[in-house]
Design brief:
By secondary structure, the chain is mainly alpha-helical. It is about 20% helix and about 5% strand. The protein has helices at about 25-35, 50-55; strands at about 40-45, 70. It is elongated, with a radius of gyration of 18 Å. The termini are far apart.
Amino acid sequence: MTADMLPQDGAIAGIGIGCWYPDAPNPSRLWENVLARRRAFRRLPPQRLSLASYHDRDPASPEKTYGSKAATIGSAGLC
């Protein structure tokens, strides 16, 4: 889309959402979370990733992650 294709008032409509988002079971809740600047990051569940095997606070550690939180989708049975 180029600038000359935009409506004069600059309004744009988002039509359709085909994704799953953490803490947002529907598009209305997604927009509520976005507008409220909510963060959906939680400590990683052990059944999702064993932090004992992969976590190291040192970001330079090879083949390790220094992150311990993620935005997981619990309702999908993935965490």
